[in-house]
Amino acid sequence: MKKLFAIVIALAMLLSAAALAEAADYTGVWYLNAMEAEGESYSPATFGIEMSIELKDDGTVVGISSMGGGEAEPQAGVWEIDGDHVNVTIDESTLAMKLEDGALIGESDGQKMVFGREKVEVEVYVPAAPKADATVEDYAGKWVSAKIGTEGIYMDAAALGLEFNANIEGTTITLDGILFSSEAVEATFADGALTYAAEDPENALLAGLTAQLLEDGNISMLVTFSDSMEFIMQPAAE
After folding, report:
1. What does the pLDDT look like over 121-177, one tens digit per residue?
2. How far apart, in whole angstroms, are the C-alpha atoms of residue 54 and residue 32?
């Protein structure tokens, strides 16, 4: 009986060791699915960022990353196990990562990066089409910036600290927030859009503005300082 019990215990230990070995298998492709900074978690896909790493059996690694839909170029490196961490080195930069709940988690410059075996698909925001038959009355009301777009990638305006308000009465647009302090401009309405251009754009805070109503009831507002920034404005909550 004691011998049988010892065999059972030994078998259990072997199975446990096998399970641990399987859990510690880092090889394969890992996808960057989440990033965390200052207590906030967000999907890199919402910023147009895609990244994956492939840890190969021979200790080499291939990293692939792209931003804004640009062409992805593979980068070669190496990886090694260091205690309960795996160190991934690409382009002379090393990221120490730990396996937690099936995810590889690393931290760099105070930012946590979470890689998973499966790529998490995220719905990327695409603005609605312009409303061709918009009238000036359709613009009336209070609006708040919801997203900021650059090179076709739209990010949360509030999370970036770029939230501001717009109040539209007729062709008068009053902006408040970020760089503005109840700044009112007189726009021109034509072809379904509101447009403003400063007389002396080089010496004006607001060089220009174009507001276009969209089919979903939001507004695409192109605001020009030294550069142009597109904001998606939503009706402000009552």
Report:
1. 877 788 999 999 999 999 999 999 999 988 777 888 887 788 899 999 999 999 999
2. 11
Q: How far apart are CA 61 and CA 107, in angstroms?
A: 18
Contacts 24+ apart (CB under 8 A), 9-18: none
For residue 177, give every residue at least 6 positions away whose Cβ sits within 8 Å of its Cβ, in sequence order, or none. Answer: 145, 163, 164, 165
Containing H/E element for 16? helix 2-23
- The domains located in the chain, with CATH, are 24-116 (2.40.128.280), 136-235 (2.40.128.20)
142 and 166 Cβ atoms separated by less than 8 Å: yes
Q: Which two tokens stand for residue 43?
A: 């999907």
pLDDT exceeds 50 at position 68: yes
171 closest CA partner among 139, 146, 142, 202: 139
Q: Tell which residue, 93, 114, 94, 91, has the closest CA to residue 102.
A: 114
The lowest-confidence range among 12-21, 70-79, 192-201, 228-237 is: 12-21
Q: What is the distance between the alpha carbons of residues 39 and 85, in angstroms, rounded to a whole number?
A: 23
Q: In this structure, are residues 152 and 68 in contact, taking their beta carbons and an 8 Å threshold? A: yes
